[in-house]
Write a structure and sequence with these properties.
The protein is an alpha/beta fold and 508 residues long. It has 21 helices and 16 strands. The radius of gyration is 30 Å and the shape is elongated.
Protein backbone atom coordinates (compact mmCIF):
# COMPACT_ATOMS: atom_id res chain seq x y z
CA UNK A 1 0.00 0.00 0.00
CA UNK A 2 2.89 2.37 0.67
CA UNK A 3 4.27 1.60 -2.77
CA UNK A 4 0.89 2.24 -4.39
CA UNK A 5 0.65 5.59 -2.64
CA UNK A 6 4.10 6.52 -3.92
CA UNK A 7 2.94 5.73 -7.47
CA UNK A 8 -0.17 7.83 -7.02
CA UNK A 9 1.85 10.75 -5.75
CA UNK A 10 3.72 10.82 -9.07
CA UNK A 11 0.59 11.31 -11.18
CA UNK A 12 -1.46 14.39 -11.95
CA UNK A 13 -4.13 12.98 -9.62
CA UNK A 14 -1.95 13.34 -6.54
CA UNK A 15 -4.38 15.53 -4.58
CA UNK A 16 -7.39 13.32 -5.21
CA UNK A 17 -5.34 10.25 -4.29
CA UNK A 18 -4.19 11.79 -1.03
CA UNK A 19 -7.79 12.58 -0.11
CA UNK A 20 -8.75 8.97 -0.87
CA UNK A 21 -6.04 7.60 1.42
CA UNK A 22 -7.09 9.92 4.22
CA UNK A 23 -10.44 8.11 4.23
CA UNK A 24 -8.89 4.62 4.03
CA UNK A 25 -9.06 3.82 7.82
CA UNK A 26 -12.71 4.84 8.03
CA UNK A 27 -13.54 2.87 4.91
CA UNK A 28 -11.86 -0.23 6.35
CA UNK A 29 -13.87 0.05 9.59
CA UNK A 30 -17.09 0.41 7.63
CA UNK A 31 -16.24 -2.69 5.60
CA UNK A 32 -15.65 -4.64 8.82
CA UNK A 33 -18.80 -3.22 10.46
CA UNK A 34 -21.12 -4.22 7.62
CA UNK A 35 -19.36 -7.30 6.28
CA UNK A 36 -17.30 -8.66 9.12
CA UNK A 37 -13.94 -10.22 8.39
CA UNK A 38 -15.05 -11.36 4.94
CA UNK A 39 -16.11 -7.82 4.01
CA UNK A 40 -12.78 -6.45 5.21
CA UNK A 41 -10.87 -9.03 3.14
CA UNK A 42 -12.90 -8.20 0.02
CA UNK A 43 -12.29 -4.50 0.58
CA UNK A 44 -8.58 -5.12 1.04
CA UNK A 45 -8.47 -6.82 -2.38
CA UNK A 46 -10.69 -4.38 -4.27
CA UNK A 47 -9.31 -1.11 -2.89
CA UNK A 48 -5.84 -1.44 -4.48
CA UNK A 49 -7.44 -2.43 -7.79
CA UNK A 50 -9.67 0.64 -7.70
CA UNK A 51 -6.68 2.80 -6.84
CA UNK A 52 -4.68 1.37 -9.74
CA UNK A 53 -7.58 2.10 -12.10
CA UNK A 54 -7.58 5.68 -10.85
CA UNK A 55 -3.85 5.92 -11.49
CA UNK A 56 -4.31 4.60 -15.02
CA UNK A 57 -7.14 7.04 -15.77
CA UNK A 58 -5.25 9.99 -14.31
CA UNK A 59 -2.17 9.04 -16.25
CA UNK A 60 -4.07 8.84 -19.51
CA UNK A 61 -5.65 12.23 -18.82
CA UNK A 62 -2.28 13.76 -18.05
CA UNK A 63 -0.80 12.29 -21.21
CA UNK A 64 -3.70 13.61 -23.27
CA UNK A 65 -3.08 17.10 -21.91
CA UNK A 66 0.58 17.09 -22.89
CA UNK A 67 2.27 16.23 -26.18
CA UNK A 68 3.71 12.76 -26.55
CA UNK A 69 7.17 14.28 -26.78
CA UNK A 70 7.24 15.08 -23.08
CA UNK A 71 7.51 18.82 -23.74
CA UNK A 72 5.06 21.27 -22.25
CA UNK A 73 1.85 22.55 -23.78
CA UNK A 74 0.22 25.91 -24.46
CA UNK A 75 -0.93 26.38 -20.85
CA UNK A 76 2.68 26.14 -19.66
CA UNK A 77 4.03 28.77 -22.02
CA UNK A 78 1.19 31.16 -21.23
CA UNK A 79 1.94 30.85 -17.52
CA UNK A 80 5.65 31.43 -18.20
CA UNK A 81 4.97 34.55 -20.28
CA UNK A 82 2.46 35.90 -17.74
CA UNK A 83 5.02 35.60 -14.93
CA UNK A 84 7.71 37.49 -16.84
CA UNK A 85 5.30 40.16 -18.05
CA UNK A 86 3.88 40.68 -14.56
CA UNK A 87 7.41 41.33 -13.21
CA UNK A 88 8.51 43.69 -15.99
CA UNK A 89 8.03 46.91 -14.02
CA UNK A 90 9.77 45.57 -10.92
CA UNK A 91 12.68 43.85 -12.67
CA UNK A 92 13.10 45.92 -15.80
CA UNK A 93 13.37 42.66 -17.75
CA UNK A 94 11.38 41.62 -20.80
CA UNK A 95 10.65 38.59 -22.98
CA UNK A 96 9.58 37.48 -26.45
CA UNK A 97 7.60 34.63 -27.95
CA UNK A 98 8.60 32.67 -31.06
CA UNK A 99 6.40 30.18 -32.94
CA UNK A 100 7.95 27.68 -35.35
CA UNK A 101 6.11 25.36 -37.73
CA UNK A 102 7.02 22.94 -40.50
CA UNK A 103 6.45 24.14 -44.04
CA UNK A 104 4.12 21.65 -45.77
CA UNK A 105 4.42 18.94 -43.09
CA UNK A 106 2.12 16.55 -44.95
CA UNK A 107 4.44 16.52 -47.95
CA UNK A 108 7.53 16.18 -45.74
CA UNK A 109 6.20 13.17 -43.85
CA UNK A 110 4.04 11.37 -46.43
CA UNK A 111 6.55 8.56 -46.81
CA UNK A 112 6.54 7.76 -43.11
CA UNK A 113 4.35 6.32 -40.38
CA UNK A 114 2.59 8.37 -37.68
CA UNK A 115 5.16 7.05 -35.20
CA UNK A 116 7.93 8.42 -37.40
CA UNK A 117 6.13 11.75 -37.54
CA UNK A 118 6.01 11.89 -33.76
CA UNK A 119 9.71 11.06 -33.66
CA UNK A 120 10.45 13.95 -36.03
CA UNK A 121 8.42 16.29 -33.81
CA UNK A 122 10.20 15.12 -30.65
CA UNK A 123 13.66 15.46 -32.15
CA UNK A 124 12.84 18.88 -33.55
CA UNK A 125 11.61 20.04 -30.16
CA UNK A 126 14.85 18.76 -28.62
CA UNK A 127 16.91 20.65 -31.19
CA UNK A 128 15.00 23.83 -30.49
CA UNK A 129 15.48 23.37 -26.75
CA UNK A 130 19.21 22.76 -27.24
CA UNK A 131 19.54 26.09 -29.02
CA UNK A 132 18.05 28.08 -26.11
CA UNK A 133 19.36 29.34 -22.76
CA UNK A 134 18.53 28.12 -19.26
CA UNK A 135 15.27 29.78 -18.27
CA UNK A 136 13.79 29.70 -21.77
CA UNK A 137 10.83 27.39 -22.42
CA UNK A 138 10.06 25.29 -25.52
CA UNK A 139 6.63 23.67 -25.85
CA UNK A 140 4.58 21.94 -28.54
CA UNK A 141 1.40 23.73 -29.59
CA UNK A 142 0.38 20.85 -31.88
CA UNK A 143 1.99 18.00 -33.80
CA UNK A 144 3.93 20.32 -36.14
CA UNK A 145 4.11 23.66 -34.31
CA UNK A 146 6.43 24.70 -31.48
CA UNK A 147 6.65 27.79 -29.31
CA UNK A 148 9.57 29.33 -27.43
CA UNK A 149 9.18 31.81 -24.58
CA UNK A 150 12.35 33.60 -23.58
CA UNK A 151 13.27 33.77 -19.94
CA UNK A 152 13.65 37.29 -18.51
CA UNK A 153 16.22 39.36 -20.43
CA UNK A 154 17.49 42.87 -19.71
CA UNK A 155 17.55 44.10 -23.31
CA UNK A 156 15.90 42.70 -26.42
CA UNK A 157 15.68 44.70 -29.63
CA UNK A 158 14.32 43.60 -32.99
CA UNK A 159 17.74 42.71 -34.38
CA UNK A 160 18.49 40.37 -31.47
CA UNK A 161 15.08 38.74 -31.85
CA UNK A 162 15.69 38.13 -35.56
CA UNK A 163 19.01 36.46 -34.68
CA UNK A 164 17.23 34.18 -32.21
CA UNK A 165 14.62 33.31 -34.85
CA UNK A 166 17.38 32.53 -37.33
CA UNK A 167 19.08 30.29 -34.78
CA UNK A 168 15.84 28.40 -34.18
CA UNK A 169 15.28 27.92 -37.89
CA UNK A 170 18.86 26.73 -38.40
CA UNK A 171 18.43 24.15 -35.63
CA UNK A 172 15.13 22.86 -37.00
CA UNK A 173 16.19 22.43 -40.63
CA UNK A 174 19.13 20.11 -40.01
CA UNK A 175 18.66 16.81 -41.91
CA UNK A 176 16.92 13.99 -40.06
CA UNK A 177 17.21 10.25 -40.63
CA UNK A 178 13.72 8.73 -40.58
CA UNK A 179 12.88 5.13 -41.48
CA UNK A 180 16.24 4.70 -43.13
CA UNK A 181 15.80 7.84 -45.26
CA UNK A 182 17.02 11.42 -44.88
CA UNK A 183 14.50 14.22 -44.82
CA UNK A 184 15.32 17.92 -45.03
CA UNK A 185 12.79 19.87 -42.95
CA UNK A 186 11.82 23.42 -43.78
CA UNK A 187 10.30 25.71 -41.15
CA UNK A 188 8.89 29.20 -40.91
CA UNK A 189 9.15 31.38 -37.81
CA UNK A 190 6.97 34.16 -36.44
CA UNK A 191 7.79 36.14 -33.32
CA UNK A 192 6.78 39.08 -31.18
CA UNK A 193 8.80 40.94 -28.56
CA UNK A 194 6.91 42.05 -25.48
CA UNK A 195 7.36 45.75 -26.21
CA UNK A 196 5.42 45.33 -29.48
CA UNK A 197 2.68 43.01 -28.24
CA UNK A 198 -0.90 44.22 -28.73
CA UNK A 199 -1.75 43.54 -25.07
CA UNK A 200 -0.18 42.94 -21.64
CA UNK A 201 -0.79 39.19 -21.26
CA UNK A 202 0.95 36.03 -22.31
CA UNK A 203 -2.04 35.22 -24.51
CA UNK A 204 -1.61 38.53 -26.35
CA UNK A 205 2.07 37.79 -26.93
CA UNK A 206 1.50 34.22 -28.14
CA UNK A 207 -1.34 35.27 -30.46
CA UNK A 208 0.86 38.01 -31.91
CA UNK A 209 3.63 35.48 -32.60
CA UNK A 210 1.08 33.21 -34.27
CA UNK A 211 -0.13 36.08 -36.44
CA UNK A 212 3.50 36.70 -37.49
CA UNK A 213 3.87 32.99 -38.26
CA UNK A 214 0.77 33.08 -40.47
CA UNK A 215 2.37 35.94 -42.37
CA UNK A 216 5.65 34.02 -42.68
CA UNK A 217 3.85 30.89 -43.93
CA UNK A 218 2.13 32.93 -46.66
CA UNK A 219 5.44 34.44 -47.77
CA UNK A 220 6.93 31.08 -48.67
CA UNK A 221 9.00 28.34 -47.09
CA UNK A 222 11.70 29.29 -44.61
CA UNK A 223 10.39 32.81 -43.94
CA UNK A 224 10.84 34.75 -40.68
CA UNK A 225 8.44 37.53 -39.74
CA UNK A 226 8.16 39.89 -36.77
CA UNK A 227 4.74 40.89 -35.55
CA UNK A 228 3.26 44.09 -36.95
CA UNK A 229 -0.10 45.48 -35.80
CA UNK A 230 -1.73 45.03 -39.20
CA UNK A 231 -0.96 41.28 -39.10
CA UNK A 232 -3.57 40.72 -36.40
CA UNK A 233 -6.22 42.09 -38.73
CA UNK A 234 -5.10 39.85 -41.58
CA UNK A 235 -5.09 36.81 -39.29
CA UNK A 236 -8.59 37.66 -38.08
CA UNK A 237 -9.65 38.07 -41.71
CA UNK A 238 -8.33 34.60 -42.57
CA UNK A 239 -10.17 33.20 -39.55
CA UNK A 240 -13.41 34.79 -40.81
CA UNK A 241 -12.84 33.30 -44.26
CA UNK A 242 -12.11 29.88 -42.76
CA UNK A 243 -15.32 30.04 -40.73
CA UNK A 244 -17.32 30.88 -43.85
CA UNK A 245 -15.89 28.18 -46.08
CA UNK A 246 -18.55 25.54 -45.49
CA UNK A 247 -21.33 28.02 -46.15
CA UNK A 248 -19.54 29.22 -49.29
CA UNK A 249 -19.36 25.66 -50.62
CA UNK A 250 -23.02 25.01 -49.86
CA UNK A 251 -24.16 28.35 -51.30
CA UNK A 252 -22.32 27.92 -54.60
CA UNK A 253 -19.88 30.77 -53.96
CA UNK A 254 -16.97 28.41 -54.66
CA UNK A 255 -17.16 26.96 -58.15
CA UNK A 256 -14.85 26.10 -61.05
CA UNK A 257 -13.38 28.46 -63.56
CA UNK A 258 -11.98 27.00 -66.75
CA UNK A 259 -8.61 27.40 -68.48
CA UNK A 260 -8.23 26.10 -72.05
CA UNK A 261 -5.68 23.53 -73.16
CA UNK A 262 -4.78 23.58 -76.85
CA UNK A 263 -2.72 21.60 -79.33
CA UNK A 264 0.74 23.17 -79.53
CA UNK A 265 0.89 22.78 -83.35
CA UNK A 266 -2.61 23.54 -84.57
CA UNK A 267 -4.14 25.56 -81.74
CA UNK A 268 -7.12 23.20 -81.68
CA UNK A 269 -8.86 23.12 -78.28
CA UNK A 270 -8.07 19.78 -76.65
CA UNK A 271 -9.75 20.40 -73.30
CA UNK A 272 -10.18 22.63 -70.27
CA UNK A 273 -8.87 22.45 -66.72
CA UNK A 274 -11.32 23.18 -63.90
CA UNK A 275 -9.81 25.50 -61.27
CA UNK A 276 -11.51 26.47 -58.00
CA UNK A 277 -12.46 30.13 -57.49
CA UNK A 278 -14.34 31.75 -54.61
CA UNK A 279 -16.90 34.41 -55.53
CA UNK A 280 -17.24 36.15 -52.17
CA UNK A 281 -20.38 38.33 -51.93
CA UNK A 282 -18.45 41.22 -50.34
CA UNK A 283 -14.84 40.75 -51.41
CA UNK A 284 -15.29 39.58 -54.98
CA UNK A 285 -12.98 36.89 -56.38
CA UNK A 286 -10.68 35.33 -53.79
CA UNK A 287 -7.63 33.63 -55.27
CA UNK A 288 -6.96 29.94 -54.64
CA UNK A 289 -3.59 30.84 -53.10
CA UNK A 290 -5.54 32.61 -50.36
CA UNK A 291 -8.36 30.17 -49.65
CA UNK A 292 -7.04 26.69 -50.55
CA UNK A 293 -4.75 26.56 -47.47
CA UNK A 294 -7.82 27.43 -45.39
CA UNK A 295 -9.74 24.58 -47.05
CA UNK A 296 -7.00 22.20 -45.98
CA UNK A 297 -6.94 23.58 -42.43
CA UNK A 298 -10.71 23.18 -42.19
CA UNK A 299 -10.63 19.60 -43.52
CA UNK A 300 -12.96 20.48 -46.41
CA UNK A 301 -10.93 19.21 -49.36
CA UNK A 302 -13.35 16.32 -49.98
CA UNK A 303 -16.32 18.70 -50.05
CA UNK A 304 -14.45 21.07 -52.36
CA UNK A 305 -13.61 18.14 -54.64
CA UNK A 306 -17.29 17.22 -54.92
CA UNK A 307 -18.21 20.78 -55.85
CA UNK A 308 -15.50 21.15 -58.50
CA UNK A 309 -16.14 17.72 -60.05
CA UNK A 310 -19.87 18.43 -60.30
CA UNK A 311 -19.20 21.85 -61.86
CA UNK A 312 -16.67 20.40 -64.31
CA UNK A 313 -18.95 17.63 -65.55
CA UNK A 314 -21.86 20.08 -65.73
CA UNK A 315 -19.75 22.32 -67.97
CA UNK A 316 -18.82 19.43 -70.24
CA UNK A 317 -22.50 18.50 -70.59
CA UNK A 318 -23.43 22.13 -71.39
CA UNK A 319 -20.71 22.39 -74.05
CA UNK A 320 -22.02 19.16 -75.58
CA UNK A 321 -25.55 20.52 -75.62
CA UNK A 322 -24.29 23.65 -77.41
CA UNK A 323 -22.51 21.47 -79.99
CA UNK A 324 -19.04 22.80 -79.11
CA UNK A 325 -17.38 19.38 -78.98
CA UNK A 326 -14.88 19.99 -76.15
CA UNK A 327 -13.02 16.65 -75.87
CA UNK A 328 -12.33 16.52 -72.14
CA UNK A 329 -12.18 18.26 -68.78
CA UNK A 330 -9.32 17.97 -66.27
CA UNK A 331 -9.94 18.10 -62.50
CA UNK A 332 -7.37 18.25 -59.72
CA UNK A 333 -7.68 15.67 -56.91
CA UNK A 334 -5.92 15.88 -53.56
CA UNK A 335 -4.16 13.04 -51.76
CA UNK A 336 -7.01 12.92 -49.23
CA UNK A 337 -9.58 12.38 -51.99
CA UNK A 338 -7.44 9.78 -53.76
CA UNK A 339 -6.98 7.90 -50.49
CA UNK A 340 -10.74 7.47 -49.92
CA UNK A 341 -12.29 4.04 -50.37
CA UNK A 342 -14.66 3.73 -53.32
CA UNK A 343 -13.15 6.69 -55.20
CA UNK A 344 -13.46 5.12 -58.67
CA UNK A 345 -17.04 4.01 -58.00
CA UNK A 346 -18.01 7.58 -57.13
CA UNK A 347 -16.40 8.85 -60.32
CA UNK A 348 -18.40 6.34 -62.36
CA UNK A 349 -21.61 7.37 -60.62
CA UNK A 350 -21.00 11.05 -61.41
CA UNK A 351 -20.12 10.31 -65.04
CA UNK A 352 -23.23 8.19 -65.47
CA UNK A 353 -25.26 10.99 -63.90
CA UNK A 354 -24.24 13.30 -66.78
CA UNK A 355 -24.19 10.52 -69.39
CA UNK A 356 -20.49 11.15 -70.12
CA UNK A 357 -17.89 8.61 -71.22
CA UNK A 358 -15.09 8.13 -68.65
CA UNK A 359 -12.44 9.00 -71.26
CA UNK A 360 -13.67 12.59 -71.17
CA UNK A 361 -12.59 13.08 -67.56
CA UNK A 362 -8.91 13.55 -66.74
CA UNK A 363 -7.64 13.25 -63.18
CA UNK A 364 -4.79 15.65 -62.40
CA UNK A 365 -2.49 14.21 -59.73
CA UNK A 366 0.46 16.08 -58.25
CA UNK A 367 3.81 14.43 -58.81
CA UNK A 368 4.40 14.39 -55.07
CA UNK A 369 1.15 12.45 -54.55
CA UNK A 370 1.98 9.90 -57.25
CA UNK A 371 5.38 9.38 -55.62
CA UNK A 372 3.89 8.39 -52.27
CA UNK A 373 5.17 5.02 -51.23
CA UNK A 374 3.16 2.66 -49.07
CA UNK A 375 -0.21 4.29 -49.79
CA UNK A 376 -1.78 1.39 -51.64
CA UNK A 377 -5.24 2.98 -51.59
CA UNK A 378 -4.03 5.80 -53.85
CA UNK A 379 -2.43 3.25 -56.19
CA UNK A 380 -5.63 1.17 -56.22
CA UNK A 381 -7.91 4.16 -56.86
CA UNK A 382 -5.75 5.46 -59.69
CA UNK A 383 -5.53 2.00 -61.26
CA UNK A 384 -9.32 1.57 -61.05
CA UNK A 385 -9.90 5.05 -62.49
CA UNK A 386 -7.58 4.29 -65.41
CA UNK A 387 -9.31 0.94 -65.96
CA UNK A 388 -12.62 2.79 -65.99
CA UNK A 389 -11.27 4.83 -68.90
CA UNK A 390 -10.38 8.12 -67.20
CA UNK A 391 -7.15 9.84 -68.18
CA UNK A 392 -4.43 10.46 -65.60
CA UNK A 393 -2.29 13.60 -65.83
CA UNK A 394 0.89 13.87 -63.74
CA UNK A 395 0.95 17.51 -62.63
CA UNK A 396 3.99 19.72 -61.85
CA UNK A 397 6.32 17.18 -63.43
CA UNK A 398 9.98 17.71 -62.58
CA UNK A 399 9.42 19.29 -59.16
CA UNK A 400 8.86 16.14 -57.06
CA UNK A 401 10.16 12.59 -56.83
CA UNK A 402 7.94 10.58 -59.18
CA UNK A 403 9.89 7.79 -60.85
CA UNK A 404 9.53 6.23 -64.29
CA UNK A 405 8.18 3.14 -62.53
CA UNK A 406 5.36 5.23 -61.03
CA UNK A 407 4.51 6.68 -64.44
CA UNK A 408 3.89 3.13 -65.60
CA UNK A 409 2.37 1.96 -62.34
CA UNK A 410 -0.38 4.59 -62.40
CA UNK A 411 -1.06 4.39 -66.16
CA UNK A 412 -0.14 8.05 -66.62
CA UNK A 413 -1.54 9.23 -69.95
CA UNK A 414 -0.01 12.70 -69.95
CA UNK A 415 2.76 14.57 -68.14
CA UNK A 416 2.31 18.27 -67.33
CA UNK A 417 5.67 20.04 -67.49
CA UNK A 418 5.90 22.50 -64.60
CA UNK A 419 5.91 26.20 -65.43
CA UNK A 420 9.28 26.63 -63.71
CA UNK A 421 10.82 24.82 -66.70
CA UNK A 422 8.61 26.50 -69.30
CA UNK A 423 9.40 30.12 -68.39
CA UNK A 424 11.91 31.63 -70.87
CA UNK A 425 12.31 28.30 -72.68
CA UNK A 426 12.70 30.29 -75.90
CA UNK A 427 15.61 32.39 -74.61
CA UNK A 428 17.33 30.28 -71.92
CA UNK A 429 19.44 27.40 -73.34
CA UNK A 430 19.41 25.52 -70.03
CA UNK A 431 15.62 25.65 -69.86
CA UNK A 432 15.43 24.45 -73.43
CA UNK A 433 17.71 21.47 -72.74
CA UNK A 434 15.71 20.45 -69.66
CA UNK A 435 12.39 20.60 -71.54
CA UNK A 436 13.88 18.71 -74.48
CA UNK A 437 15.08 15.97 -72.13
CA UNK A 438 11.63 15.65 -70.53
CA UNK A 439 9.96 15.52 -73.93
CA UNK A 440 12.41 12.88 -75.14
CA UNK A 441 11.77 10.71 -72.08
CA UNK A 442 7.99 10.98 -72.50
CA UNK A 443 8.21 10.20 -76.20
CA UNK A 444 10.09 6.98 -75.49
CA UNK A 445 7.56 6.05 -72.80
CA UNK A 446 4.63 6.75 -75.09
CA UNK A 447 3.28 9.44 -72.74
CA UNK A 448 1.70 12.66 -73.98
CA UNK A 449 2.98 16.06 -72.78
CA UNK A 450 1.39 19.36 -71.81
CA UNK A 451 3.39 22.48 -70.88
CA UNK A 452 1.70 24.69 -68.29
CA UNK A 453 2.39 28.34 -67.59
CA UNK A 454 2.93 29.31 -71.23
CA UNK A 455 2.81 33.11 -71.35
CA UNK A 456 4.47 34.29 -74.56
CA UNK A 457 4.26 33.44 -78.28
CA UNK A 458 7.97 32.63 -78.19
CA UNK A 459 7.51 30.02 -75.45
CA UNK A 460 4.55 28.55 -77.34
CA UNK A 461 6.47 28.31 -80.63
CA UNK A 462 9.58 26.81 -79.02
CA UNK A 463 7.54 24.14 -77.20
CA UNK A 464 5.83 23.19 -80.45
CA UNK A 465 9.20 22.93 -82.22
CA UNK A 466 10.57 20.71 -79.43
CA UNK A 467 7.62 18.32 -79.84
CA UNK A 468 5.37 19.23 -76.88
CA UNK A 469 1.83 18.22 -77.78
CA UNK A 470 -0.35 20.50 -75.65
CA UNK A 471 0.04 23.94 -74.02
CA UNK A 472 -1.82 25.87 -71.35
CA UNK A 473 -1.27 29.27 -69.73
CA UNK A 474 -2.02 32.98 -69.75
CA UNK A 475 -0.51 33.22 -73.24
CA UNK A 476 -3.47 31.10 -74.44
CA UNK A 477 -6.16 32.33 -72.06
CA UNK A 478 -6.66 33.06 -68.39
CA UNK A 479 -9.12 30.97 -66.34
CA UNK A 480 -12.66 32.18 -66.98
CA UNK A 481 -16.14 31.73 -65.60
CA UNK A 482 -18.39 29.16 -67.24
CA UNK A 483 -20.56 31.74 -69.03
CA UNK A 484 -17.48 33.33 -70.60
CA UNK A 485 -16.24 30.08 -72.14
CA UNK A 486 -18.85 30.01 -74.94
CA UNK A 487 -17.76 33.32 -76.42
CA UNK A 488 -14.07 32.50 -75.99
CA UNK A 489 -14.44 29.16 -77.78
CA UNK A 490 -16.17 30.82 -80.73
CA UNK A 491 -13.57 33.61 -80.96
CA UNK A 492 -10.69 31.15 -80.73
CA UNK A 493 -12.09 28.90 -83.44
CA UNK A 494 -12.87 31.81 -85.77
CA UNK A 495 -9.34 33.13 -85.34
CA UNK A 496 -7.76 29.79 -86.13
CA UNK A 497 -10.09 29.18 -89.04
CA UNK A 498 -8.97 32.52 -90.52
CA UNK A 499 -5.32 31.62 -89.88
CA UNK A 500 -5.74 28.22 -91.55
CA UNK A 501 -7.41 29.85 -94.56
CA UNK A 502 -4.54 32.36 -94.85
CA UNK A 503 -2.00 29.54 -94.72
CA UNK A 504 -3.83 27.61 -97.43
CA UNK A 505 -3.97 30.70 -99.61
CA UNK A 506 -0.21 31.07 -99.28
CA UNK A 507 0.36 27.38 -99.90
CA UNK A 508 1.83 26.94 -96.43
Amino acid sequence: MVQLRRILSQTSGQTASADWFALLPAATLLAYWFGGERGMVVFAVLAPLAALAAVFTAGRTARAERPVTGFGCETDILAHLDRVLADRVATGQTTACFVVTFDDPARMLWRHTPAAGRDVARRTAERLADSTRPGDMVVMLDDVTFALALGPVRRLDLEAAVQIASRLRAAAILPLAVDGQTIHPSVSVGFCVADRAPGPTGRDLLDAARAALDEAAHQGPGAIRAFQPEMAGRRADRAILRAGLEHALDAGQIRPWFQPQVCADTGRITGFEALARWHHPDRGIISPAEFLPLVEEAGLYARLGEVILYGALSALARWDKAGLGIPQIAVNFSAAELSAAGFAERLKWELDRFDLAPCRLTLEVLETVAARMGDEMIALNLAQSAALGCGIDLDDFGTGQASIANIRRFSIRRVKIDRSFVTNVDTDPDQKRIVAAILGLCDRLGVQTLAEGVETPGEHATLAQLGCQHVQGFGIARPMAMEETFAWIERHRRGHAHLDATRLGRGV
